[in-house]
Amino acid sequence: MIKELKRPIRVLVAKVGIDGHDRGAKVIATALRDAGMEVIYTGLRQTPEMVVNAALQEDADAIGISILSGAHMTVFPKVLQLMKEKKMNDVLLTGGGIIPLEDIKKLQTMGVGSLFAPGAPTSEIAEYIKEWVKVNRNF
């Protein structure tokens, strides 16, 4: 069932671990704001615990992780585990960066949403989040 939202979608954009390159995260954050979403950007060097706690405090509808460090097979499962522990079952975990296709498939099997490679149209990312939230988020 698709619902109309009574408030802007809230997306928490995060950089986890030692990955210090945040230009892509900032571009995505700006694009999502331009698409009418509220964006909370956590900044660099966050832990999975910090990201999940911030998403919970901000009542985020989605968490977007930007990752270029190669730690995606550690970061995404840890964030997903913490989300499950906190019963954040109706919050989207998505993201993007340098992630091999075979790893994308494994992560999606675990429960991570769509993952986007560098150069993905920002309009595609925004539309994906909007549609996922309308279908899955419990208001």
Structure explained in plain terms:
The chain is α/β, with parallel strands linked by helices and 139 residues long. The protein contains five helices and five strands, in the order E-H-E-H-E-H-E-H-E-H. It has helices at 23-34, 48-57, 72-85, 101-110, 122-136, and strands at 10-15, 38-41, 62-67, 92-97, 115-116. The protein has a five-stranded parallel β-sheet with strand order 2-1-3-4-5, with helices on both faces. The model has no long low-confidence stretch (mean pLDDT 94).
Could you spell the SSE succession in H and E letters?
A: EHEHEHEHEH
What is the residue-averaged pLDDT? 94
Please bin the fraction of helical residues. Answer: 40-55%
In one word, what is the shape? Answer: globular
Which structural category fits the helices and strands? alpha/beta
The fraction of residues in strands falls at: 15-25%
Which key terms come to mind for this protein?
five-stranded parallel β-sheet; 139 residues; 5 helices; alpha/beta; globular
Secondary-structure map:
Blueprint lengths: L9 E6 L7 H12 L3 E4 L6 H10 L4 E6 L4 H14 L6 E6 L3 H10 L4 E2 L5 H15 L3
Parallel strand pairs: 1-2, 1-3, 3-4, 4-5
